[in-house]
Amino acid sequence: MSAQTRYNTVVIDAGHGGFDRGGIPSQRILEKNMNLDVSLRLKPILEKAGYRVIMTRSTDIFVPLGARVAIANSNPNAIFVCIHFNSASRSGASGIETYFYSTESAPLAASIHSAVVGGAPSDNRGVRRRGYFVLRRTTIPAVLVECGFLTNPTEAQYAQTTAYRQKLAQEIARGIVNRPTLAARTAYTNRSSQVDVGLQPFLDQRFVHESTARHHRHHTSSKKKKSSSAEKKEVSSEEQ
Known about the structure:
The protein is built from seven helices and nine strands. By secondary structure, the protein is of the alpha/beta class. The protein has a seven-stranded mixed beta sheet with strand order 3-2-4-7-5-6-9, with helices on both faces. The chain has a two-stranded antiparallel ribbon with strand order 1-8. Strand 2, helix 1 and strand 3 form a beta-alpha-beta unit. Helix 1 (about 30-50) packs across helix 6 (about 160-180) and helix 3 (about 105-120) packs antiparallel against helix 6. The chain is globular. Residues about 185-240 have low confidence and may be disordered.
C-alpha cells in the first residue's frame, strides 16, 4: 500500500513512571517526572492544533511496555511519540537525539528532531534507527525523543525550568504539525534500510558494531603496516 495517510491522532507516551524512575542509579533528577511534565504540556498544544490526543499515562504510574504498544496499536489512524530524557555515567555527555525503527517513521523523526534541535541550546546528536521495544512493536509511525541529558549539569538546569519544558513541548508539537502526512505502513517497512531523514545527522544502529569492527581492523592493519615499514627502514639503514 503506497497511499499517503493523514494522521489525526497522537498517542503520547511519557517514558517510565511509578517505581520505574528512569535514568541511572543515584541520578538526582527523576526522569519519569520530566517525561510526564513535557508530555502533559504537549497534549493541549496538539489538541489546539486539531489533533485527538491519547496519553499512555497522565499520572505517576507504571505502564508496562506491552501495554503502551497495545494502546498505540489500537489507534491505527495515529502516530506514537515517546518522550524521554537521557542519562550517562559521564556528566559531559549532552545533546538531543531522536529514534525511529520502521521506514515510515523516519520522516516524522526527522521533522520532530529538526524542530526540537532548532529551538533548544543543546547539541544535535542526530536521528538514529534503533529497535527499542516501543518502536519495533508498534504498527503505526513511532518515534522516541531524548530531550537532553539530566546527568549533564547544564542540560539538567534547563530541564528544571518550566519555560524550557514548555519550549520542548512546543517544538515537539511543531515537528508533528509540520509533518502530518506520512507513508502508510507496508509489510516490509521494518525490514527496509532505505529511509529519508532529511538533512539531519543519521546513524543506523544496525551497522554500528560492523563499522566499529571494520575501523578496528583497519586501525590494526595500519599499525601493522607502520610497524612493517619501520622494520624495513631499520633494515635499509643497517644495509647502508
